[in-house]
Amino acid sequence: MKFRKVMEEGKMLEMEFSGEGHTLLNLLQSSLLKDSNVKMAGYSKPHPLMDRSVFYVTLKRGKNFDKVLIKAANDAKKELADFVKKFEAEIAKNN
Fold it and tell me: Whole domain around residue 69: which residue ranges?
């Protein structure tokens, strides 16, 4: 995965991701939207054949995007770990 900050202005951040599709970006977006300080989070893929997506985040207060993004990624990681644990338990029940 590669990403870069395209624009950071006030409470708005625009980033460009390459090498990632809807799976990771949708997970990050969902995790960000659970944060009470996040006003808006979303992304767009300008063209299906392009290996590039643009990600947007707007905060309600403050400007610490790094902290918000890292927290969202860690929250998503915990959610996935919980899913794997429950999934493995269900598989074990059905075998």
Answer: 2-93
| Pairing of β 12-18 and β 2-9 | antiparallel
Q: Provide the domain count of the chain.
A: 1
Which tokens sit at 18? 């390459």
* CATH number of the domain within which 7 lies: 3.30.1360.10
Give the tens place of pLDDT for each residue, 6-20: 999 999 999 999 988
Q: In terms of C-beta density within 10 A (0-12 exposed, 13-18 middle, 19 or more buried), how is residue 17 classed? A: buried
CA distance 31 to 78: 11
The C-alpha atoms of residue 82 and residue 89 are separated, in whole angstroms, by 11
Give pTM, 2 decimals. Answer: 0.85
> CA-CA distances (angstroms) from residue 55 to 1, 11, 60?
14, 14, 17
